[in-house]
Amino acid sequence: MAGPLGMTGEALARLRPHAIALWHKVQVPARLVLLLLVVSVLGYKLNEIGWGILAHNLPTNPWFYIIFIVNYCGLPFYETIIYNWLWHTGARVLPALLRKRVYNEAVLEYSGESALFMWARGHTKVGDGELARNVRDVNILSTLVANLVTFGLLVGVISTVMGRLGAGDAALLRRGTLFIGAFVLLLLGLIAAFGRRFLALPLGKAAGVSGLHMLRLFTYMGLLAVQWHVAVPQVGWNTWIIFIALQMAVSRLPLIPAKDLFFTGLAVHLGGRVSAVPAMLAGLFVASSGLNLMVHGVMYMVGHLAGVKPPPPEVVEDIVQGEAEGLTFDPQSGPGSL
């Protein structure tokens, strides 16, 4: 007789096709509605500041743009080290990792992992099952480390500068901190409960990958603070910590389109509360968001002209659901069974 877990797994298996069909119907209009809402709110906030004032306060220091490009390449650079360690690819995996970033941030979440999996099938001698497990595990460890760092940042912000925020903003920040903390505990609980069935990498490699992700995040945050500081040196470093924590928290939100624009809207809203130069901050964050979108567009077009297209939705679903060879879900033994 099947136990409760088995019955739950069978019920989920029956519901899954209906859930996927419903998601296919609503995902595009839902994302468009969210995108229009984000753009509308951002436009309203910028209009309050004034478009002329905004244009006058766009960053002019060339180091702002140089540091941006260096930081943009940081994620694929560190992931090149990680995947070379796992697959012995050398630097030839770097273009695939650049495309992975663009697809995840500008097309559809997890489409980047799917594109990387498809690239690796044709450029490595690793089996499909191990490829999919590696992509999944690197993504899980990246998520865990990023949420741990974000939780620490938010706790630091709450304990030091909460008095500079309004009551509504402070309450929202506390709820976000609690949510991220609960998610970290959930991930750690799953790893502890299911072990190798949830995370297939050996402990040594998992620790090494986590360490590289941690180093990547601190490199990213340090460069980001310097990039913002050279553009608006009037603002103190503690204020940049607030905005870095906010950006890290926004990047953890699932299914939000154009997260750069969403963060820019929040940052413009908070600018007047935490700084004496809100117009300069608005110009800074608008420039950062626009740069990111422009580089995404250039990278996407380069990939398109080179004949590299995003993976179809069904491939994305397979990676998300872990149904590549050797990653089928066994309701009797828990998620991520091998």
Question: Your description of this structure?
Answer:
The chain has 338 residues and is mainly alpha-helical. It has one domain. It has 13 helices and no strands. Residues 323-338 have low confidence and may be disordered.
Brief summary:
The protein is mostly helical. The chain contains 13 helices and no strands. Helix 4 (74-87) packs across helix 5.
How do the helices and strands line up, and which of them pair or pack?
Layout: H1 4-49, H2 51-56, H3 62-72, H4 74-87, H5 94-107, H6 111-123, H7 128-161, H8 167-194, H9 203-231, H10 237-251, H11 259-274, H12 278-305, H13 313-321
Spell out the key features of this protein.
mainly alpha
Gyration radius, rounded: 21 Å
Q: What is the total number of structural domains?
A: 1
Mean pLDDT: 77
Helical content, roughly? over 70%
Low-confidence stretches: 323-338
Order of helices and strands: HHHHHHHHHHHHH
Helix vs. strand class: mainly alpha
Work out the strand percent: under 5%
Sheet of most strands: none
